[in-house]
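G., the chain you wanted modeled:
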Amino acid sequence: MSMLATDIGFVDALGLGERDFANTRVLVLCGESGSGKSSAIRFLMRKHRHYRDDTRVQVIEELRSWRDLGIFMRALMRRDRLLVASHLPVWLHRVLGVMTRTCVIALDCHPQKISRWLAAQDVGFSDAAVAEFCRHFGANYTDARLILQHAEATSFDQALGRFLRQCRLDRNDMPSGLPVLVMPVAEAEAHYLALNAAGIKQIP
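Predicted structure as C-alpha cells:
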C-alpha cells in the first residue's frame, strides 16, 4: 500500500486518499485518543477528491459517550455528509450504518501506522515488537510515544520490553458531558489550526 505524504504533515499510512468515498454519506473514524482520528479527518477534508470541494460536509469532533448519540442522530437527519471522530465501539456505528451509506474505519487496528511513525522517528523496531505493542495498546501513537519516553533504549523492542516489565498503563473512562462540535469544513479547519497554535498537536 502506498503512503501519501501531504503538506499538512500527514502520511496516509492506510491509503485513505486512494479509497472511493463517492457514495459514502457517513465516514466514521473510530479509535482511542492518539490514534489519529482528527489528523485523518483534516487530511480527508483538505485533500480527498470526494470531500475537499463538497460544501455539504460536516465534521463531528468528537463522540465520547453514548449520550452523544443524540447529537449524531440529529446531524444524521439532515442531508449533510458527515466526517465523524468517535470513541464509541465500531460495532455500534456499523449497526447505525444500516440507516444510511456508512463506512467505519477502526484506526486502532493497523500496525503499519506505528511502523511508519517509528521509522520517521529514526527508531529501530521489529515487526514482532510492533505487533506485540498493538496487541496490548492498539495502534496508538500516544502510547508509543510514552513507551519511548519512559525507557532509555536503543530500539522500540527494548523500550517495549522494559515498559511491559516495569509499568502498567491505566485508562480512565472517556469523560461525558463535554461539548461535541458539529462544524462545516471551513470552521473545522479553523478549529484544528487553533489547536495547533495552542500547542495541541495532531498526530501524523
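The radius of gyration is 17 Å.

Shout if anything looks off.
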